[in-house]
Design goal:
34% of the residues lie in helices and 23% in strands. A hairpin with a 2-residue loop joins strand 1 and strand 2.
Amino acid sequence: MSGARRAGPLLRLEEVTAFYGAIQALKGVDLEVSEGEIVTLIGANGAGKSTLLMTICGNPRARTGRIAFDGHDITQLPTHAIMRRSVAVAPEGRRIFSRMTVRENLLMGAQAVGLDDFDAELRRVFALFPRLEERLYQRGGTLSGGEQQMLAIGRALMSRPRLLLLDEPSLGLAPLLVRQIFGAIRALNRDTGLTVLLVEQNAYQALRLAHRGYVLVNGAITMSGSGAELLARPEIHAAYLEGGSAAASSSPQGYPTTDAHG
């Protein structure tokens, strides 16, 4: 989160299109994320949510339109160059290095920025996810699903990003772990000012967490607004939130502390 803050959004997409072969996955997407915001992108399976995140990362490449980060055009940059601009991603399905230990996975995350502050970054990740410290020398593939998600997020954080891209962090997790992961995202944003773009099918939890949200349908943005505004829209409730409130916590904020087991 270092560097001078520029006027305008930290991330801006303008009329971005993307294709897989002959199939158009994104259709003129406009989206903004200001520094210090949590912005969520919700939509059904196949709407193009993950494609949008990966297009920001340069794979697939935007066919037309413009993607700017911190005022610089990154549309045609290779993925490794985008990541070196303080962007990190925790991809869908976790994709940790299953044969490596927790420590080795976190070490991989730190490679982009060097190892001078490795121990300090480890302490920050362990403060957020104490379970990872307990599993430090355990292979990633032997962790529970919740622990693997914590590791995927922790690995991304080791690069000290200004923008964290999260792709379906609640996928396949029990409700308690979903609340734990979302609570950790909230704490990161509140305590460090980390900017987050969150792709999520759990619209209820995502919109409660986010400052703003976008709805993606068949590759196009159809609606946007604050998290509270979108939660209040009857069409959002009908399409994405039926039964979602059942996942809410009984605690006042709906987010427990982050020491539950995965």
